[in-house]
Amino acid sequence: MALLTGKQYRASLKDGRQVFVNGELVEDVTTHPAIKPMVDAMAALYDLQHDERYKDVFGYVNEDGEIASRVYKLPETIEDLRNRREMTAAILNEVSPVIDRFGDETVTPLFVMKDRKALLDKYDTRYYENAVRWLKKLQVSNWFLTSGNTDPKGDRSKQPYQQDDPDMYTRVVEEREDGIIIRGAKFETGACYAHAAFVKPTVGSWVPENTDYAVACIVPLNSPNLRHICRAPHFDSPNGFDKPLSSQFDELDTLIVFDDVFVPWENVIFSRKPELAALIRQDLHNWAAQGFLNRAYAKADTLVGAALLVTEHTRLGAIPSIREKIAVLMGYRETIRAFIFASESEHQVSESGMIMPNLSIQNAGRVYASSNFYEMVQILRDLAGGTAVMQPDERSLRSPLTGPDVQKYFRIGSTTAEDRLKVLNLVNELTASSFAGRMCAYAMFAESPPMVQAMSLYNSFDRQGSLQRAARLAGVAA
């Protein structure tokens, strides 16, 4: 079986899924104006796999002699780990540097399940078998697997079992001979144009009363009784001039509603196992942060490029204080790059012998990239000034009534008004639009909140080595 093409991907989405935008049922997600741009972007990604330049980056021959997707290949060697970086970079370079959800990082919790066979088998041997079966299915089918992490949560001062409405966290309402019934909801990016979601628990305290919420499973996104309620789009019309990013790359976030959705046992990774959920939850980011850092690098590089363009247009690029600000952006980009390569160079071997990035370095990079992103956006906003929120639209540029004035007052030397407006619109989308606000929120929270990221770093750090060094200097026992 060959890897999916863009055309086949589009056709596969016509599967009876229930998707709602602005309160209305979407008849065809491939043509709806709010969803079509990202379907087109994902189709371009699928077609990229067939580009002669990237065939070896995206595809490999599995043990059964089939062409399979490297997006879902286990990182069994250091070459596999490097390939994951190169593959993600190819997507960010060729499709868009500002998209985040396209499957390479959302599959990585399945890597963890494959790695933790002994732990899963303690509870039910089907769990490991199901994870392996789904990995093989994804490798050959080349489906787009998204995630299902964030519950609505309701009253956040209360545990799931204490909520007035018990559905504020996704839960198992029934276990049957043939499978389980789940109820609740999850917020997820790109679910309305993905094939399946890996639903995972996010409960912090695994007390016995939360047992029903300890569930992980893979759910096809056209399942009966499953609804997608999409947030409002970040663009009004597909105008690439005025909205160069949101008109093409608005990754719709969705409230996935599980209204008593049936999940057969072969799709269940675990059910009603709070102890297992507590033991494995932290490990779920063991490979995911590599993808996050590659995305952070691409966004950082975009900020640098936009800063160079806008200061070139205003003729301020030679001023030392301006260069100093741009250098901060450059330092941010290069620091993320250093984290990527250092975590790869100092890679670790997992429990089952797979290769994973150095967790301490990777987690430090994740904390650094997410906690400093907003400040970097502020620097670009400062360099662009207020003009990036005051520019006229394309219709004003083209109108015979207003065009001459726009051409006159937005032209700077040899830089035409049209070119200047295009750059200002890009800066606006990166710093001041609703798309920019969502991008900042995603950078901060998509890889779990900052405190959780910090705890992952704390737990993966070699504290004993640092402790002993300081103890020797102090002359005390460690």
From TrEMBL:
Annotated HpaB/PvcC/4-BUDH N-terminal domain residues: 5-269
UniProt KW Oxidoreductase keyword: yes
Keywords from the UniProt entry: FAD, Flavoprotein, Oxidoreductase
Tree of life domain: Bacteria
Keyword tRNA-binding: no
A Pfam family reported for this protein in Swiss-Prot or TrEMBL: HpaB
HpaB/PvcC/4-BUDH C-terminal domain span: 285-475
Protein's UniProt name: 4-hydroxyphenylacetate 3-hydroxylase N-terminal domain-containing protein
Organism from which the protein derives: Herbaspirillum lusitanum
